[in-house]
Design brief:
The structure is a homodimer. The first copy, chain A, is 36% helix and 26% strand. By secondary structure, chain A is an alpha+beta fold. Chain A folds into 2 domains: 63 residues, Arc Repressor Mutant, subunit A (Orthogonal Bundle); 47 residues, Ferric-uptake regulator, C-terminal dimerisarion domain (Dna Ligase, domain 1), CATH 3.30.1490.190. A two-stranded antiparallel ribbon of chain A has the order 1-2. Chain A has a two-stranded antiparallel sheet with strand order 3-4. In chain A, a hairpin with a 2-residue loop joins β1 and β2. In chain A, α1 packs across α2, α1 packs across α3 and α2 crosses α3. The radius of gyration of chain A is 17 Å and the shape is globular. The termini of chain A are far apart. Chains A and B meet through β3 and β5 of A and β3 and β5 of B. β3 of chain A pairs parallel with β5 of chain B, so a sheet runs across the interface. Chain A binds a DNA duplex through α3.
Chain lengths: 121, 121
DNA sequence: GTATATGCAAACAATTTGCACGCCT
DNA sequence: AGGCGTGCAAATTGTTTGCATATAC
């Protein structure tokens, strides 16, 4: 992958925030560094960065968010502000542990387990 | 909520399939019963049915899928065909149990825990 | 009769893509 | 020089909405 200033700015933005930003947020921040940058460029670079495993995509409802924490981890999602907070599975015991460690009151736990179903064995 | 043939067909379609269909799938099946049904009607009824807790929305990547199994449950998602298979959390012990019970080879477990973060206490 | 539901089409939001040009290597 | 990356605008996709008409109750 060849160097480009746009890609560098985009990656830095993602790495320097904890908010798991959307493409739009990245676009508006990037414009303060590169006023002429386009939204298409943002999306193209996000795809590339994901392919190169420099970032990961999190689908939050029907909006994509981007995360540069590439260690396997999960999220606490606040029902009120929508913030996503990183957690390691190791930290999880049960709701009580989460309440204690994160001061986060759990109302629901959702899980998607992926893999290969029996049709492909 | 007042009766309508459209809504009845839509709900029946969701209840009679295990595939967690998308709005588009529902629309095309519904047309075989009600040729003039519109996609707008499908979406409006999906919203209503969700508000009335007759169905639930599952966000799968960036597409919404609809599920009439209203008991709390999670999903196994096949990496190859994209199918979502229902599971009860009770069934989950670990990957091995899943392999045994569902003949499903687990490659990843993702979890979103929602609730209220400390900013709102 | 009146409120709710419908079909249709236009509007929207998020994301992708074709094209001519620009800039790394 | 050659190819990857860019800006711009138009195209796509999934979903929502305004409006006039139709239907349940």
């Amino acid at each position: 992958m060849r160097y480009s200033q746009q890609r560098e700015v985009i990656l830095n933005l993602i790495q320097n925030t904890k908010i798991h930003p959307t493409a739009d947020w990245i676009y508006s921040k990037a414009k303060t560094h590169i006023p002429k940058i386009s939204l298409g460029t943002v999306y193209r670079n996000l795809k590339k960065l994901e392919q190169d495993k420099l970032i990961a995509t999190i689908y939050d409802g029907n909006v994509a968010r981007y995360d540069s924490n590439m260690e396997k981890h999960d999220h606490l999602k606040c029902n009120i502000c929508g913030d996503l907070i990183d957690i390691n599975k190791n930290n999880i015991d049960i709701s009580k542990t989460i309440l204690r460690n994160f001061n986060f009151k759990v109302s629901d736990i959702e899980m998607t387990i992926s893999g290969t179903c029996k049709k492909h064995t």
